[in-house]
Design brief:
heterodimer; A: mainly beta; Ubiquitin-like (UB roll); 5-stranded mixed sheet; two-stranded antiparallel sheet; 1 helix; 7 strands; B: alpha/beta; Rossmann fold; 9 strands; binds zinc ion
């Protein structure tokens, strides 16, 4: 699984299959502060990501 | 519903069984792209209707910073506009003068209004106050948000008046509002807690409305993302100094563990407001002896601040 982090760096893991929520928490984020795209499409925290997926994590930063 | 606990690759929309893009933890609802967008727009319309935020004949001026909240606000109001009688929309942008931050958001605001063909005015702090926020804050960065807040309030009032607005719409979302309620409770500031809801203008300034007050920050992010309107904009460089930041992360943690916390805070406020209606000792409206603006003391916050600003 390719994971693209909010700072645009990426990493590979074999963590899947796993729920988005579990993955995000593992990476040290609270699900409330990020949204997640799987292969370019937004998915919910209870969706499952697999090792063949590309997962992008976007931080909801506050810009006013 | 029976097999809710078994993870599925893609949870389905409760309305149409399309792929879900949003899961509301409080209601346990899953929504697809179309139903999520429709839900947000309907909720904003309902907030506007039930609170009479916009009435026929209004000229609503959007305080467009170019950031996420005000961008979503503009998109949603523009979508809802055709269903209202003789309501006009336009936008104003205040350029505080924050290097490395405002250039991008102002550019993004310009592009947005161009796409919607909307009237748009920009007012820089330098025009109104004779200097940029950066210049005013030299050596007093820790006060950034309160200094900026006082100057922005004035700038927006001037901008709304110049534009001939009958309502000034700001992008404050549920998270912002819940944070404000919490902060006012922590400060023990009951009058502020009750007064905060846009009625502080006491008839002289353009009334402020917050149509996104029941839409969460996360929902706004999803809404923008689904419209391809998400932009990775920089954070305000002064935000690190703000006390609000602590309250923000504390509330986000609570909301995550106990979905509905923010809405409950808003409900508390509404109840306190109802209980207090007409019963709080209203401080008499006084007028600043320097500029004549309504205020609670002898001199308004702005005039007091101005004396301390380095030019
Ligand atoms: Zn649907
Ligand atoms: Zn004054």
């Amino acid at each position: 699984m390719k994971i693209i982090l909010p700072d645009k760096t990426s990493r590979e893991t074999k963590a899947g299959p796993v729920t988005v929520e579990a993955l995000v928490r593992d990476l040290g984020f609270d699900p409330i502060e990020v949204i997640v795209a799987r292969n370019g499409t937004l998915v919910t925290e209870d969706a499952v990501v697999e090792n063949t997926d590309e997962v992008r994590i976007i931080r909801i930063a506050h810009g006013g | 519903m029976a097999c809710d606990d078994v993870p599925v690759k893609t949870p389905r929309c409760d309305c149409c069984s399309g792929p879900a893009v949003f899961h509301d933890k409080k209601t346990a609802r899953h929504l697809c792209r179309e139903h999520f967008i429709a839900d947000i727009e309907e909720r904003v319309a309902e907030t506007i209707r039930s609170r009479h935020l916009i009435v026929p004949g209004d000229h609503v001026v959007i305080a467009l910073s170019g950031g996420k909240d005000s961008t979503a606000l503009l998109m949603i109001l523009a979508r809802l506009l055709p269903s209202w009688d003789s309501v006009r929309l336009s936008a104003v942008t205040i350029d505080e003068g924050i290097a490395g931050y405002r250039e991008d958001t102002i550019h993004s605001a310009d592009q947005l209004v161009a796409r919607y063909g909307m009237d748009h005015t920009s007012i820089p702090f330098t025009d109104l106050f004779g200097g940029t926020l950066d210049a005013f804050l030299k050596g007093r960065e820790a006060e950034a948000c309160s200094v900026c807040g006082i100057l922005r309030r004035k700038a927006l009032n001037v901008a709304a008046e110049r534009a001939g607005a009958t309502k000034l719409a700001t992008g404050h979302n549920l998270d912002d509002e819940a944070q404000s309620v919490f902060m006012n409770v922590l400060r023990g500031d009951l009058p502020r807690l009750v007064r905060d809801s846009g009625s502080d203008s006491k008839g002289r300034f353009t009334p402020r409305i917050k149509p996104l007050m029941f839409v969460s920050e996360k929902e706004i992010a999803v809404y923008l993302m689904l419209h391809g309107a998400w932009a990775d904009l920089p954070e305000c460089p002064y935000a690190v100094h703000a006390l609000r930041g602590e309250v923000r992360s504390m509330l986000a943690t609570l909301e995550s563990k106990h979905p509905g916390t923010m809405l409950h805070l808003m409900e508390s406020k509404t109840r306190i407001e109802a209980q207090c209606a007409g019963r709080l000792d209203e401080e008499p409206v006084r007028h600043c002896r320097e500029c004549g603006d309504p205020c609670s003391g002898e001199t308004c916050q702005l005039c007091t601040l101005k004396k301390t600003l380095s030019q």
